[in-house]
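Worked example 3. Consider a protein that binds NAP.
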Amino acid sequence: MILKNKVAVVTGGSRGIGRAVALGFAKEGADIAVIYSGSSERAEDVCKEAKEMGVNAFSYKCDVADFDITESTVNQIYEDLSRIDILVNNAGITRDGLVLQMKEQDFDDVIAVNLKGAFNMIKHTTRRFAKQKSGRIINISSVSGLMGNSGQANYSASKAGLIGLTKTIAKELASRGVTCNAIAPGFITTDMTEAMPEAVKEASLGIIPQKRIGTPEDIAALAVFLASDNAGYITGEVIRVDGGLYI
Ligand code: NAP
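Given these inputs, the predicted complex is written out as structure tokens:
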């Protein structure tokens, strides 16, 4: 159990990649705090599954885009679980559309959740990380942030922004024992990708060298490693988990 006695916060832990990451951490002995925006039942299911593995688990309804609510949620997590060792900024949304049609609100909403949400969570946890001289921050970016993607100006910008945020936090907090890395998933089967048109899914499969869509567990396996003591000398890194999509 490589995460025993650790406490992990996973934003967007109720579904998809976040759920797999939270349960991957629980399997390795970490207590978990699952942040969600609306799906309280699904968040509770994740906690139930984690508790069956013998760890503590709490769920928190919290809009990561809201600075004050993220602050009170982080404070509540410290009350419930006493400490935080690992923060995974995974909560994310899409509002796809070609830039000619994209509404200003669609751009702002995606930046607010995907990028500002990560900043909010980092802002409210890192003072204590610095004080305890340890901490692991993992930001879930995307290959769209590396290569751009038609129809995703807002999303790609938010995910590229997360990479800049990751490298900066890594530099600022390296001397305090805190690491900050980004995972850039390719095409992963979740509710987010289920919503895409069938033709787009088929076209995506055609350009993935491994010829398969990824699973949330493919991402969780790397998150568990990056959160562990084994990854202590890795910081400011962006690691693709994409079956070769962006080679
Ligand atoms: P998903 O299945 O749509 O789940 C999104 C999660 O984010 C849910 O838990 C949702 O909570 C939460 N969330 C959304 N808005 C939130 C907000 N304002 N505050 C708090 N939580 C919020 O997505 P996914 O596919 O697992 O994606 C997870 C992350 O991986 C995202 O950052 C996404 O951009 C990234 N990613 C995904 C893929 C892919 O192919 N799936 C590829 C690259 C990167 P509720 O359940 O309460 O709605």
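Take a moment to read the result before moving on. The mean pLDDT is 97. The chain has one domain: 7-234.
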